[in-house]
Each structure stands twice: as C-alpha cells, then as structure tokens.
C-alpha cells in the first residue's frame, strides 16, 4: 500500500513516465515486498529552469535530477532492504534520465500503522483483522 510521490527534471514524456513507473513498481515489490496492486505512483515533471541544486539551475549545470518519497508502514522493512532500494532506484533513474546529478534524493518514510491507510482503514486495523 505504499504511495510514491515523484518529481523528475525535464519535460513531460509518456515513455519516461512509463519507465519510471515500471522501475519503481518492480523495486517496491521485489525489494520491499509490497503488493503491486495497492502501490500508487504519482509522477510530476519540473522544468530544468525551475530546479536548483547548490544555488545553480540544472539547465546551467547540464544535469538531470529526481526526488521521490515513498511512504511505507513502519517496521515492515529492514535497514538493509531500504538501503538496497535506494541504491537500485538511483541506478535505475540514472539509466532512464542519464547525466544524473548526485544530489538526487530518495526518502523512504516509515509511517505509523495507526496513522496510515487506504480504503478508509488504517494499516493497524488491517493488521488486527
């Protein structure tokens, strides 16, 4: 049931969008063990002239970047799983976007089961059922 909010530098492109979706859906399922059918991914594009790293525009640096956060239920994944997820996600975005700025970020956010849910039910409620 994770939700991923993704920001990608550049112009909106359906092929890039699909590639990012496939990458994140695979990694989230394969490494974090999350069900594909309840994984939601929202992808937004940010123009290179609107994204700064170190006070300089990406367009000036000739680089691409991304940021995404993923919300997962606390205590469902190990530190090693999250580290592997971040590593493979960065590598995947490098393949998709190319010329990736090192200051591209991934935030795996552990959220409390009693404060997180979908379909009108918390994960805590689902756990006890």
Automatic annotation (TrEMBL):
InterPro entries: Tautomerase/MIF_sf (IPR014347). It comes from the Bacteria. This is 4-oxalocrotonate tautomerase. The lineage of its organism: Bacteria, Pseudomonadati, Pseudomonadota, Betaproteobacteria, Burkholderiales.
């Amino acid at each position: 049931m994770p939700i991923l909010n993704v920001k990608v530098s550049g112009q909106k492109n359906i092929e890039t969008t699909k590639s990012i979706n496939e990458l994140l859906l695979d990694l989230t399922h394969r490494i974090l063990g999350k069900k594909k059918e309840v994984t939601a991914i929202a992808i937004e594009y940010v123009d290179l002239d609107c994204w700064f790293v170190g006070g300089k525009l990406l367009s000036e640096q000739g680089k691409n970047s991304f940021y995404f956060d993923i919300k997962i239920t606390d205590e469902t994944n190990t530190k090693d799983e999250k580290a592997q997820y971040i590593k493979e996600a960065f590598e995947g975005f490098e393949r998709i976007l190319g010329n990736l700025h090192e200051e591209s970020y991934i935030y795996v956010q552990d959220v409390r089961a009693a404060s997180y849910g979908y379909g009108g039910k918390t994960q805590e409620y689902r756990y006890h059922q």
